[in-house]
Structures are given as structure tokens and as C-alpha cells.
From TrEMBL:
This is Bifunctional protein GlmU. Its cofactor is Mg(2+). The active site is at H360. Residues 248-454 are annotated as: N-acetyltransferase. GO terms for cellular component: cytoplasm; membrane. Residues 260-342 form the Mannose-1-phosphate guanyltransferase C-terminal domain. It catalyses: N-acetyl-alpha-D-glucosamine 1-phosphate + UTP + H(+) = UDP-N-acetyl-alpha-D-glucosamine + diphosphate; alpha-D-glucosamine 1-phosphate + acetyl-CoA = N-acetyl-alpha-D-glucosamine 1-phosphate + CoA + H(+). It comes from the Bacteria. Keywords: Acyltransferase, Cell shape, Cell wall biogenesis/degradation, Cytoplasm, Magnesium, Metal-binding, Multifunctional enzyme, Nucleotidyltransferase, Peptidoglycan synthesis, Repeat, Transferase. It comes from Pseudomonas taeanensis MS-3. Residues 227-247 are annotated as: Linker.
């Protein structure tokens, strides 16, 4: 059966106290609405319709995609009114309503809900709550049949005792929806067109309201303020940490691990505390990541070691290679197998060949460095003349003396040695020593100046 998904995201979110529209606030590095859209996509609907209002332009700009239909709700007159704005674009047999500020909804739960929808039946996601304050309550008859939803503000004291709450998530037969929404009225405590009133109409039309529950109540939890946002974040991170541990990763402390993107992991990976993984990260077998590392959009090959306080972005650490502590690998940094990068070394668009080493305090940018080449402490590639960038190519088994300045464009052949403190400005043929510094003079009998008494 065909499916349209409507995501409500027009509300203001006053309690966020933010210039950013509520649904753009991130959980695990991705906007709440982004999470909902991605979950919606997994259901392969024919259309995803996002109802926007407050901050509409920002939301549209941030999330625009070919498969999304943004629908503007200029005035927020209620959830029923919001869905009605999308009506002209709906044509599927089933319509699923989701919320842009309820990001942890699981695909499996929605799948179970959708299975309930038919011509004579709709599916409603409800949740049993210890404290249902604020939620619409599910009214059932003595046999348990759902009759209606009553909003907190319209409920009698007896109805407020009901602990089964409306999550708002609902799946309905598409061909009925227009008729029901057209009949909504706003004569209620909040003067709003309530989507929830559709339930009583469906019952009056002889349909059965089937209910389904989430496996975990956090799935249906929305974020109205930053406290709830932080709760969702922690829940997400705990879930991510548990999934990784189940896949064979050792997390030194699952409470001090953050995933803001996607990671694939091999076996026997060890991740120490306070590590942040961002974007797409690939971690192969036996990788060790030390404490306080930030690793984004990077690949760590088998047995690689990233030591404490390293920052990797768009980098690759080869098989058995290691970097850090305090290494900075920027986009295009590639460490070959068994290569070594030590403390306070920055690489950008630089490839270190197999077994090559840069042990301390270097900047290597726009460089190709051959196998087994050793870069002495303090070496800098001068890759930028203030206007353009140039490349440095070092052959294999090169030995760069400490504190060398390699002025690009520059090519050094295999086996070249440079003297410490050299400024190397022209190419050096293979197996040659290049010394580019003032020659040392020793001045015998030289006297230090003495202080003049005034
Ligand atoms: C709604 C439900 C309530 C349920 C609760 C769960 C109704 C009438 N009530 O109440 O039964 O228990 O959610 O959280 O549906 N929105 C729009 N346009 C509007 C109004 C709302 O896009 O005109 C969006 C909001 O941005 C929000 C969502 O719909 O994401 C829910 O709206 P809200 O006003 O928060 O509804 P509740 O009062 O929480
Ligand atoms: Ca709400």
C-alpha cells in the first residue's frame, strides 16, 4: 500500500529561547527534523511533506532535498490545521503523521503501526505514562475499544486520571483524511483545530482505531526545551554506545563517548574516554583510540593507534600506523602503513609513505612523502606564498634535518639528507646532502659586553 508521510514542524518552540527554529536543534550532530526525515525515508514513502511555519526559510534552506515537499503553514492554528495544509499534495492509500521535534522514533515501531492501517482501520501510537500531564488522553470503552482523544486542557478530572497518552503519531487511510480534516472545529479550550479529533470521527464512521506502543518511551519523547534536548541526546548516545559494545568494541566508559554521525567498526576496537566521532568514520579491526580525540570523516585501518588528544578530519591512518598524542590530521592527510606522526604535528593534504615518520612539531601541507622518510622536529613545508599553494615531493629514505624549511614547489630525490636548520629552496637530486644555512664561524677570544655603570 502506498504511503505519504506528513511531518509537523511549524511550531515556534518558545521554550528553547533560541534564534534557531526548534526542529533545527541538533541531537547527535543532526537536526531533530533531520532525524525524523531520515527515519521517514527508510519507510520508502511516495512523498514526504514537511509542514513548516516558524523559521520556515531557515528550515527549508538547511534541509532542502529533492524528495521533500515543504508546505507552509502561515498561522499555527493547530495540529489538524497543519496536516490540512499538506492535503492537496497527498494521494497515497496511507498517511503517516510524524513530528519534527520527536527525533528518536524507530523505524520498527512505525512499521508495526503502519501494518494496522486499512480501509476500515487506523493506527494510533499511544504510550503509558507515570505522569501523563500535558498529553492528550486515550478514551476507551469498557471493552477497551478506543473512542476518542481528549486534550489535557479539555479533560475532566476523571479523564485526567487516564495514564495512556497520545504520542500524536498516527497512521490513517488517505482517502478518509480530507473529509475528517474538513469537519474539524476549533471550539475547544485552546481554540485550535485538533488533529486528535479525527479519532472520534473515525469511530463515528465505523472504523476501528488500533493502537500500538513504542518499545521505549524515549522514542516518542519530544524536546520542548534544552533540558529535554539534553535528555534525548544522552539517550541517543547510550543507545549508540550499547550498539557498539554489542559489535565488539571496548568503550572504557560508555557514558563518556559521543557519536555524531555514522561509524562502522571492526573487532577488538578500543575507545578510551571522551572520544567524539563525527560524520562518517570507519574503524577497522584492532584500532586503539586514546582519550579526548575528535575524529571526523576519517578511516582508521587495521591496528592503527590514535593517541590522546588528537584531532582528525578527513584523514586516513594506515595499517599499524600511529599518530599523537596531540596530532592534527586535516583533510587529505594520509598515513601509510606503519607510518608515525608524533606530538604537535599538523598534516594537511599530505601523504606519508609506508613507515615514514614525522615525530615532533611539524607542519606538512600539500606534500608527498616517500616510504621510510624521516622528518626532523620543527620541519615546515612552506607551501603557500601568500597567493598560491605549491607541492613538496620527498622521495623514499629521505632524512630531513630538524628545523628545515622546505620551500615549495620542491622535489627531493630518494635518499636525500638535509642539514638541520636548512632553508631548502631548490630541488635536490637523489642521495645528496643539501645544506642551506649560514656556515658556522667560531670567533676565538671574543669578549662578552659588560654593563656600563651610569
Ligand atoms: C499534541 C497532541 C496531544 C499529544 C501531544 C504529544 C493535538 C491536538 N494534541 O499536543 O494529544 O499528547 O501532542 O506531544 O494534536 N504544530 C504545527 N502546527 C500547528 C500546531 C502544531 O506544526 O499549528 C506542530 C508543533 O510544531 C509540534 C507538534 O505539531 O511539533 C505538536 O504540537 P503541540 O502544539 O506541541 O501539541 P501538544 O499540545 O503537545
Ligand atoms: Ca508538544
Amino acid at each position: 500500500m502506498s504511503l505519504d508521510i506528513v511531518i509537523l514542524a511549524a511550531g515556534q518552540g518558545t521554550r528553547m529561547r533560541s534564534a534557531l527554529p526548534k526542529v533545527l536543534h541538533p541531537v547527535a550532530g543532526k537536526s531533530m527534523l533531520g532525524h525524523v526525515i531520515d527515519t521517514a525515508r527508510t519507510l520508502q514513502p511516495q512523498g514526504i511533506h514537511v509542514v513548516i511555519g516558524h523559521g520556515a526559510e531557515q528550515v527549508r534552506e538547511r534541509l532542502a532535498a529533492d524528495d521533500l515537499n515543504f508546505v507552509l503553514q502561515t498561522e499555527q492554528l493547530g495540529t489538524g490545521h497543519a496536516v490540512a495544509q499538506a492535503l492537496p499534495a497527498l494521494s497515497a492509500e496511507r498517511v503517516l503523521i510524524l513530528y519534527g521535534d520527536v527525533p528518536l522514533m524507530e523505524q520498527g515501531t512505525l512499521q508495526r503501526l503502519l501494518e494496522k492501517v486499512g480501509d476500515e482501520q487506523l493506527g494510533l501510537l499511544t504510550v503509558d505514562l507515570n505522569d501523563p500531564t500535558g498529553y492528550g488522553r486515550i478514551l476507551r470503552d469498557k471493552t477497551g475499544k478506543v473512542l476518542a482523544i481528549v486534550e489535557q486542557k479539555d479533560a475532566t478530572p476523571e479523564q485526567r486520571q487516564i495514564c495512556e497518552g497520545n504520542t500524536g503519531i498516527l497512521a490513517v487511510p488517505g482517502k478518509r483524511l480530507g473529509d475528517w480534516l474538513g469537519r474539524l472545529s476549533n471550539s475547544n479550550a485552546q481554540g485550535e483545530y485538533y488533529l486528535t479529533d479525527v479519532i472520534a470521527m473515525a469511530v463515528a464512521d465505523g472504523l476501528v482505531v488500533a493502537t500500538e506502543q513504542p518499545l521505549d518511551a524515549m522514542e516518542v519523547q519530544g524536546a520542548n526545551d534544552r533540558i529535554q534536548l539534553a535528555e534525548l541526546e544522552r539517550h541517543y548516545q547510550q543507545r549508540a554506545a550499547r550498539q557498539l559494545m554489542a559489535q565488539g568494541v571496548t568503550l572504557r566508559d560508555p557514558a563518556r563517548f559521543d557519536l555524531r554521525g555514522e561509524v562502522t567498526v571492526g573487532r577488538d576496537v578500543l575507545i578510551d574516554i571522551n572520544v567524539i566521532l563525527e560524520g562518517r568514520v570507519v574503524i577497522e579491526d584492532g584500532v586503539h583510540i586514546g582519550p579526548n580525540c575528535v575524529i571526523s570523516n576519517s578511516t582508521l585501518r587495521q591496528g592503527a593507534v590514535v593517541k590522546a588528544n588528537s584531532h582528525l578530519e578527513g584523514a586516513e591512518v594506515g595499517e599499524g600506523a600511529d599518530c599523537g598524542p596531540f596530532a592534527r590530521l586535516r583533510p587529505g592527510a594520509v598515513l601509510g602503513a606503519k607510518a608515525h606522526v608524533g606530538n604537535f604535528v599538523e598534516l594537511k593534504n599530505a601523504v606519508l609513505g609506508e613507515g615514514a615518520k614525522a615525530g615532533h612539531l611539524s607542519y606538512l601541507g600539500d606534500a608527498e612523502i616517500g616510504a621510510r622518510t624521516n622528518i626532523g622536529a620543527g620541519t615546515i613545508t612552506c607551501n603557500y606564498d601568500g597567493a598560491n599553494k605549491f607541492k613538496t615531493v620527498l622521495g623514499e629514505d629521505v632524512f630531513i634535518g630538524s628545523n628545515s624549511a622546505l620551500v615549495a614547489p620542491l622535489i627531493l630525490g630518494d635518499g636525500v639528507t638535509t642539514g638541520a636548520g636548512s632553508v631548502i629552496t631548490s630541488d635536490v637530486p637523489a642521495d645528496t646532502l643539501a645544506v642551506g644555512r649560514a656556515k658556522q664561524r667560531n670567533i676565538e677570544g671574543w669578549k662578552r659586553p659588560v654593563k656600563i655603570n651610569k
